[in-house]
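Re: the 273-residue chain
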Amino acid sequence: MAKDLSYKRFLFIEMLAWWQGSISNKQLMLQFGISRQQAYNDFKQYLHQYPHNLLKTEQGYIPAHTFSPQFISGELGQYLHWYETHTILDNTYQSPQVAHVSIPDRIVSVQIIRLLVAAIEQQRRIDVQYVSLSHPENDGRIFHPHTFVNTGLRWHVRGYCEKSQAYRDLVISRFKGEAELLDSSTHPVSGDHAWQTIIPIVLQPDYRLTDAQKSVLGNDFELTDGRLIINTRAALAHYVLREMQINIKMLDGTPEAQQWVLVNQDDIKQWLF
């Protein structure tokens, strides 16, 4: 039991040091409800075992240039899971009866993540370089981030883009080069209308399916009057439809392929892109 707790505290030390750029005694104490002396002992023990990983500063501990993770997976999702829930996700136990689909991790810059976290928590702007399929060359942006978003296959960060003069989702793996933390943001999350607006997405089984096939879908989800209602932030409606394999621009050749149709398309089309 003590070994398991030590493992999790060491994982937490590495995770915050690496992804946030620093960790303090107070953060370790708050996460695990331990005393200052215990936190001190944990750092002392970690540094004794891995002397080249962390450097002590007046504010806490920062990762050294020779940092080599011993406990964290290095996956952004592990850190952002903690950032959202304050619970620690580790891979110490793998059930032979449960398998997970393995998808290649997108390459993200740890320096970018540290700047995004600081900007979100301090409500500040950042100056970044960004690439996209429409603009594959480095494109300078002044961005006001407010929330990390997991769309299922990749991580985005949502915020206000001064170039677009609107709230946008930027793919984290497409930030390139160095970033700079700027002054206070003038476009907080409260001003993001699409984020603050909750809308229902109303789906029903494809009308071309047989009654027996429709009943199969009814067993998958809890339907209301034969319909599946998903309440979501308007800014996330596009991703919800994509995860449900709903293509509003065309119907697939066979109803078995799409299975569901969007009932209230006219009501929510203003939120789609």
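Residues 2-20 form the longest helix (19 residues).
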